[in-house]
Amino acid sequence: MEDNSEELADALNTAGLWVKDRDGNLGNRYYSMIEARCPGAKIGKDVLAKHWFVDEPGPWSTPLAAAEDATRKELGIQPDEQ
Predict the structure, then answer these.
(1) Count of domains observed in the chain
(2) pTM reported for the whole predicted model
């Protein structure tokens, strides 16, 4: 993916959200990648303004979430209650 693309910023942010609680050092690496490669993308700007990952959908994570929802529906798995 190209630097400063919304897809790259979204993918790195999503990966950071997945690992940040289990491995803070790996989360920091994803944050550093966003700093270096995506400071001009909207999600990149939001991450840098917050100084950590943001919980917002983007062009990479939205189709991923839709595919996950479709698979859960197909398998009859109920969504987790929050």
Answers:
(1) 1
(2) 0.83
